[in-house]
Automatic annotation (TrEMBL):
Official protein name in the record: Nucleolar protein 10-like N-terminal domain-containing protein
One of the GO biological process terms: maturation of SSU-rRNA from tricistronic rRNA transcript (SSU-rRNA, 5.8S rRNA, LSU-rRNA)
InterPro entries the record matches: Beta-prop_NOL10_N, NOL10/Enp2, WD40/YVTN_repeat-like_dom_sf, WD40_repeat_dom_sf
Pfam families recorded: Beta-prop_NOL10_N (PF23098)
Highest taxon in the source lineage: Eukaryota
UniProt source species: Diceros bicornis minor (South-central black rhinoceros)
Amino acid sequence: MPTVCTTIKVSKDGQYILATGTYKPRVRCYDTYQLSLKFERCLDSEVVTFETLSDDYSKIVFLHNDRYIEFHSQSGFYYKTRIPKFGRDFSYHYPSCDLYFVGASSEVYRLNLEQGRYLNPLQTDAAENNVCDINSVHGLFATGTIEGRVECWDPRTRNRVGLLDCALSSVTADSEINSLPTISALKFNGALTMAVGTSTGQVLLYDLRSDKPLLVKDHQYGLPIKTVHFQDSLDLILSADSRIIKMWNKNSGKIFTSLEPEHDINDVCLYPSSGMQCVAMSH
């Protein structure tokens, strides 16, 4: 990218690596089979995050920083619509074809791609929501709030089924915290495991059957956790803030290794079923 690479993801079939950056706002798609740039598309505004809905690059949804949702097909731009408040993250619920958008609002906006219309939003107790994720096994929707809580919702009944106070659990005896931790990262793994990253640099590992964390890992830098990923073959968790990527055992919390690049980290993604990771950074 000319200046900054903001987000990076690998397609589900593992053939394409997609990255967004600036300036000017653009998306680039790389073909791993040919080891080359497949295409580059310039966009109207910066991308907050994006998701591939298909196995390859033929269906992509972009969330922009000017509230626009942009859909791209294989040939290029397809359609754009707008959400009422500024968005920060979104997740796709495959069984119902619903996109769930969270952002600077207490509501979670739902856009149904089968009917092509907005559905009634979910009303959370939070002032604002930062991140969200959907469990691929049983479909539980979780959103992380600026009050340091994680709210869990059942998409079938549209009712809240659980509430975790992660801000309280992240404060341990040896941690120094100057402000209320907000939720900055969220990731499910399997049916019962969830990792939560806070804005004060802690990663909490939860079993969904308990409201107490199994493990609290502190990055010691006081920087917001950007991403959390699970590496199942080695039982590792990869957590990244803007300065360091830490890899640690999910059972014991013991550090496996750390990566501290020269430039700021914006995003990390794991290549499926391998030990390779892709990192989006600032120049």
